[in-house]
Amino acid sequence: MSHFFTYAILTATIASGIQYTAPFLLAALGETLGQRSGVLNLGVDGIMLLGAFSTYYVAYRTGDLGLALVAGLATGAVLGLLTAFMSVTLNAEQGISGIGVYILALGLTDLLFVKLVGTPTPIKPLMGLDIGLLDRIPAVGRMFFHQNALIYVAFLLVPVLGFVLYRTTYGTKVLACGENPAAADSLGINVHRIRYSAVIAGSTMAGLAGATLLINYGIFQENLTQSAGFIAVALVYFGAWKPGGVMAGSLLYGIVTAVIFQWKSLGIIPVSDADLAATAPAVITVLALLSVGRRFRQPSALAKPYVRGA
Amino acid sequence: MRRLLASESNASIVAPAVNWRRIALTWFALPLSAVGALLVGALLIAAFGSNPISGYHALINGAFGGGYALSSTAVKAVPLLLVGVGICISFRANVLNIGGEGQIAMGGLAATATALAVPHLPAVLLVPLVLLAGVGGGFVWGAVPGFFKAYFNVNEILSTIMLNLVAVQLMNYLLAGPMIDTTTPFAVTGKIPQTRLLSKNAWLPIIVHGTQLHLGVVIAVAVALLAYVLLWQTGFGFRLRAVGLSREAATYAGMPVKRTTTLALALSGAFCGLAGAILVFGGISHRMVTDGSLTGFTGSAGFNGIVVALFGGLNPLWTIVSAFLFGGLLVGGTALQGATGVPTDLVTTIEGLVVIFVVSIDFLRRRARVRAEEPPERPGTRTRTRPGLLRLMRARA
Amino acid sequence: MVAKGPGDAPVVLEMQGITKRFPGVLANDHVDFDVRSGEVHTLFGENGAGKSTLMSILYGLHRADEGVTLLDGEPVTIGSPAEAIRLGIGMIHQHFMLVPTLTVAENVSLGLASTRGPLKDTRRVSQRIEELSSAYGIRVNPAAAVWQLSVGERQRVEIIKALYREARLLILDEPTAVLTPGEVDDLFRVLAQMRSDGRSMVFISHKLREVLALSDRITVLRAGRNVGTVLPAEVSEERLAELMVGRHIGAERPSPQGPSPAGEALLRVRDLVVRGDRGADTVTGVSLDVRAGEIVGIAGVSGNGQRELAEAIACLRSPSRGTIRVGGVDLAGRNAAGARRAGLGFVPEERMRDGVIGDFSVSENLMLVDAAKAAFSRWGFLRGRSIRSYCAERVSTFDVRTPGLETPTRNLSGGNIQKLILARELSGNPKVLLVAQPTRGIDVAATRYIHERLREQARKGIAVLVVSEDLDEVINLADRILVMYEGRIIGEAGARTTTREALGLMLAGVAAAPAGAAAGSSAG
Amino acid sequence: KTGAPPTTNPAAPAATGGSTSSTAGHPFKVAIVAPSAVNDLAFTESMVSAVQSLKQKYDLQIAISDNQYVVSDAANLIRQYASEGYNLVIAHGSQYGSTVEQLAPQFPKVSFAWGTAGSTFNQPNIFAYQAASNEGGYVQGYMAGLMSKSKTIGVIGPINVGDAQLYVDGFKQGVLAADKTANVKVTFTGSFSDVGLMATAAKAYIANGADVLTGSSQSVVGAIGVAKAAKAAWFGTQWDQSSLAPTAVVSCQVYNWVPVLDQIFTAIKGGKLGGATYTIGLGNGGEKIQFNPGYPLSPSVKAAGEKEITAIVDGTLTPAQ
Ligand SMILES: Nc1ncnc2c1ncn2[C@@H]1O[C@H](COP(=O)(O)OP(=O)(O)OP(=O)(O)O)[C@@H](O)[C@H]1O
Ligand SMILES: Nc1ncnc2c1ncn2[C@@H]1O[C@H](COP(=O)(O)OP(=O)(O)OP(=O)(O)O)[C@@H](O)[C@H]1O
Ligand SMILES: [Mg+2]
Ligand SMILES: [Mg+2]
Fewer Cβ close by (within 10 Å): the C or N end of chain D? Predict the structure, then answer.
């Protein structure tokens, strides 16, 4: 146990926890935006998968990570359009249509991988970005300021989303559509347009989450996300639909995961008990929710299609 | 004032005209969705440079061509059907059970543990016992999120997903640790996370010699019938549906809303758990073995079951048909791979498309139904558009 | 009460030959309708007559199948609320169109351009709200979250919203259904001021008294058709009701004022304290008795604890102190089912949400509380045949107008849904019947029917407790009236010995109760 | 999930129920059921390409079902191939053992091959095959021990079983033989297929100061990427992984199942359907240490490694199992 608390390892653990957090955080923030407008998108995991794949594919073909990221974002946006079309225009049952997107992406990414790539080949990684002198700050520097740019983007999006939701007129419209779309409609707000925009923006973030995950791993494989998208949805509930809360939940999940992993590789957790320890992030998340005993009040119109006059 | 109780009064007002659009949308919506998905699938097969027609021919042949294929399909359909029936129940209670994967695993583990504990019981006792243990394992794994939802307001999407993650690790731990095979020498298998060969007395008997068709198939169909009766012919089912449609009204009516919610998810889990037990004891290897992932044991039945239930209109009876079709799709997918080289992921893709088409076409169905089913009577008679899919799919008992 | 506007002012709005079909319903059938400048024009009619539909078309929520709309003589097509707002049309819906989680200022400015581009300009909005409040004497705090506001305050926010958008034609769809007399007076005062500013209003209400008091003209819709426009001075309440239903219905006869029945006190509430949703006690010590054969009305401004009191009696909310007895049985520790077993019937105030399940059939809703009874269920299995015959009997006894027992309940009108609930709640032969807001939003004919059934139950020896915010209803129906204010019963009045005005003052907590109220506010 | 479509079409009318012994003129029908993708650059690919390389020599008709990580589905397929008259069904995965054990008695005329494992369950129609991956593991571990400057070396396995386990044990032994003070860490991710977990484990090692990494199973591709990014050295096994990270891969232990398959085919032609266990190792040419020419390996380390190989081949060194 003692050598866990060495300075180097502690900082390394937190650094990898932060890195682990980023994809969850991105996806969960995107989901938050969508849910705040009243649309439950259960297809995040699928969007992440397809986003990861397109990022991988473009990087693999062109070697250009910037272009690859654009591909990941664009994939997210297109799937957001599909999701919005089903949920907003066709009034589909949202819990189920999302599962459809997930299953579709699960199959499609693998088909595409076999067809277009074949042999798994790692792509070049995104190097850590040293931020000015900040990364020289002892401890904190290496933990927080030697990550790749996407990690900063993820954490930066927390205040950005908060600002958009609470300080802009667009944010107010989003909140209104999620709480009382009839009221928004009666004031001349185009509920469908707001929901489309929120879902597409949120899904684009899910696409970015997939790209981040992919760049973390450096390679694509079947079911790369391993349910990360579903966990992200869960984290939205955990964070009570607030960007800060979502970040707290994601960090809890990411850091516990990292700690468990460090302990496993350091042998603090014996190999025989490693599996039990691996349940920790999930168990802790649920218990945290129970013990906080928070009474959630989800956006009133969440997952309810808006039909004028109904 | 005219009393409108007699339903014939409608008939006398509107001339019976055949509305093809409505018939297409109400009766053929689901088949049409399937056809649409298969068409997209055909494009994908073609993209792989193969002939879609021969591909689908191989698929259908592999799934339904002959006794062996049919029996494989039926066996593959069993977990789908059981999970699907569980989904029917939980969704009717307005609880989204995404935890089928974990519940299957826990059912499998509980059943396996039972067979390991009392291997010498005679088959007439042991078979029912392991199946019940499976039911119990799944029941508990469903009751926990159900209880959290009902009494602590913990969203069940969150907790069931998290419990899937817990289940896979627990399974890995148990199979690599306390339940590992100690009968075969280490040198033979190393430490494969698997149990010893389970007691023969617990194996599900094959009911048609020379095929795979085992008792589990009969049980699953019987369970679906029971679930149907439960939902529409019993007081419990009535309460469950009432709670699902309106917690408020159910509360005012004095129904035990929290208990019903918990039970609905627990029951849903129980059916999944039964599927887990059947996977172990109706499988060929007769052990529980993992590759470290949940799907390695469940074959994604926990998710596919949702699709199956949806395609079955959340009605346990139609879910039987739907499970058989999807079982065929999965079994035939391998034949298709053999014939065309298109990966079996094609089947997964088609499944996803089916879901997307079904939920999308539901919108048109809803409109068609409202337009056609409720003809103008007199001005001012109230009708309302019917809401969502779940509600729409109320089977007429 | 309010000065009438000019009768010869120019016509601002003209709707001609408006027809609207919904699947299965002809909601508007070639309706002609016009509004003059500075006029309050009332739309009157039964539930489902097409009033809201006509106004929804005007406001761009629905599109007419036929007909034209002229504003200031110019034909306009109004495709969305945004266009309506641009044309100076405002609408106040019966169900408030507010976002509870947002502040007043946010609600008011929702959807409008901000002076700060994409950013909110809360300060400027608040300022403007203050200006409007002082100009019209409407008190609201722009920074308050809407969920914290009372019903009356929310109504004011709705009006501010319309004023903020400079509406010159304001549609008010049943704005008074949930207001207290005092709040209604405030509202009418504001409307009068708006009228004198030259704004026009379309007013919808089921309350005859208000309609006659406020309107300059009244147009009656029946079954989607305009059956005539009358001046309030030229019609009586009775004539209006007759126009509405198309046949003669006599005036409602108030309950005969006999001596207070000497029956046994079937409902006894003692010293009840109940906590509300927001954590504070909203019922702060209530004691009351309702005797067999008696109808007791509880009047009060909404939010004074009536809802919590009713829920506590129905065992949907556990009191923090005090006792409730039904026919001598203490309800402590029981749930709603237990309360029913003790002999309580309960008609909830939110009938679509709490009273019925819209997607259940009529028969399923009739079984909602009784499904487990031996008569309908054996070994846990439902007995289809006896259920069907029982439901058929209930439907005919209570005159529930429905195409069939399997019809989804949401297709029924509000009045018929209320009858269905009554039929169900009375099936167990309760000793006590608790009815909350029995006729809110229900048209005159159905209201009379329901009142008559309640009186009939009382005559049969049931103790009936009616909670209502509609003073006329309480006065008409009850033998005794208890007034609730800030969680207590602050006074009692005999229905025939009091006046609306006296009662209205008590509702505001002003006048003390006449001394000697049998079950007045408790000392503890 | 085949990238390369199977060489021949198994859905073509097959001899069903007929004699399954291989008579001249009939192609010899082989089916492979494997847990990962045919192009996984590791476990599955090593077997599939070995079988395909023998296609001409033995006139093989080959069917492949890859990505069968769901054991019950794999079992179904194995059974189906057996019932369709395949002469040899290769169940390429330790987790299929129980299935083979159950099915072999039901199809006495079909030969089953199961690996990697060491037991035929005493049945006459099961061959078992394994890889003495501890041998290459030892050699590579020895070189790793010499190379590491931080004296911290990370080993990642999937599940503690089969050739992965042998490799890990051999590697650890080799490191300690070269440098008793070295710090070798071993993690098993618990999954054969989870690339992400492997990558995460590799990152954890890097964070803890490791400068040499190795790992087994098809899921190492992500970890190799991590090694490359961190400029750490990587040792591979099962397949030549140099192309994945030309700057990081030092050497790989490459499997070549041809010697084993030769023995199995010869035995079957001779009428023997099973009952034997075959092993590939450095000695019989079934395993080879493939050095990455692009990696600047110091000649002394390479020479030391080659010395250990010679010692193992001529039997003077036997890494313990
Ligand atoms: N989408 C709809 N489909 C069918 N009928 C509807 C629909 N929306 C409203 N109605 C009916 O139109 C009537 C008037 O609608 P409105 O929104 O004014 O409700 P309401 O006045 O609250 O109803 P109630 O008079 O029952 O209280 C309602 O009674 C309702 O039954
Ligand atoms: N969106 C809708 N879809 C279908 N039918 C509707 C819809 N809105 C209203 N209706 C029907 O149109 C008819 C007229 O309803 P409307 O809401 O205009 O009545 P209303 O006069 O406002 O009634 P109330 O007094 O109950 O408010 C009713 O039969 C109602 O059921
Ligand atoms: Mg109306
Ligand atoms: Mg109304």
Answer: C
Number of compact structural domains in chain B: 1
**pLDDT one-digit tens code per residue, B4-18:** 333 333 333 333 455
Residue ranges making up the domain that contains B110 = 78-335+360-370+385-396
Please report, as a single letter, which amino acid is at residue D74. A
User: Which chain D residues are Cβ-neighbours of A266 within 8 angstroms?
Assistant: 185, 208
**Counting atoms of ligand 1 from 1, which one is nearest the CA of C410?**
31
**Residue B246, in any domain of the structure:** yes
Question: What pLDDT is stored for residue B376 in this prediction?
Answer: 36
CA–CA gap between residue B191 and residue D185 (Å, rounded): 19
In a domain, A302, yes or no: no
| pLDDT in the model for residue A249 | 92
Which whole number is the average pLDDT over C456-478? 89
pLDDT per position as a tens digit, B141-200: 999 999 999 998 888 887 898 899 899 889 988 988 888 887 766 555 566 778 888 888
Q: Is B373 on the interface with D (CB under 8 A)?
A: no
CA of A249 to the centre of ligand 1 (A): 42
Structural domain for A239, as ranges: 2-120+138-295
Is B73 within the bounds of a domain? no
Residue A309 falls inside a structural domain: no
CB atoms within 10 A of CB C106: 25
Distances (CA, A) of B233 to B225, B228, B230, C278, C367: 11, 8, 6, 41, 13
Distance C112 CA to ligand 3 centre (A): 27
- Confirm or reject contact between B200 and chain D (CB < 8 A): no
SS3 sequence, chain A?
CHHHHCHHHHHHHHHHHHHHHHHHHHHHHHHHHHHHCCCCCCCHHHHHHHHHHHHHHHHHHHCCHHHHHHHHHHHHHHHHHHHHHHHHHCCCCHHHHHHHHHHHHHHHHHHHHHHHHCCCCCCCCCCCEECCCHHHCCCHHHHHCEECHHHHHHHHHHHHHHHHHHHEHHHHHHHHHHHCHHHHHHCCCCHHHHHHHHHHHHHHHHHHHHHHHHHHHCCCCCCCCCCHHHHHHHHHHHCCCCHHHHHHHHHHHHHHHHHHHHHHHHCCCCHHHHHHHHCHHHHHHHHHHHHHCCCCCCCCCCCCCCCCCC
Q: Which two tokens stand for residue B140?
A: 């508990």
All structural domains of chain C, each given as residue ranges with its CATH number in brackets, are 11-245 (3.40.50.300), 265-343+430-522 (3.40.50.300)
B142 falls within a domain: yes
Partners of chain A (3+ Cβ pairs below 8 A): B, C, D
CB distance from B66 to chain D under 8 Å?
A: no
CA of B12 to the centre of ligand 2 (A): 24
| pLDDT tier at B370, thresholds 50, 70, 90 | low
Q: How many domains, in total, are found in chain A? A: 1
Q: Is residue B301 part of a domain?
A: yes
Distance CA C348, CA C417 (A): 12
Interface of A with B in 137-196 (CB under 8 A): none
Is residue A183 a part of any domain in this protein?
A: yes
Measured distance CA(A299)–CA(B42) in Å, rounded: 41
What's the whole-model pTM score? 0.85
- B264-288 confidence digits (pLDDT tens): 999 999 999 999 999 999 988 888 8
Average pLDDT over residues A84-99: 88
CATH number at residue A44: 1.10.3470
Position of tokens 């501890």?
D134
Query: Is some CB atom of chain B closer than 8 A to the CB atom of A253?
Result: no
pLDDT in tens, A122-151: 777 665 555 555 555 555 555 555 567 888
Look at residue C118 and tell me whether its pLDDT is greater than 70. yes
* Chain B residue whose CA is closest to A235: B158
- The reply to whether A289 falls in a domain is yes
By the 10 Å C-beta count (0-12 exposed, 13-18 middle, 19+ buried), C133 is classed as middle
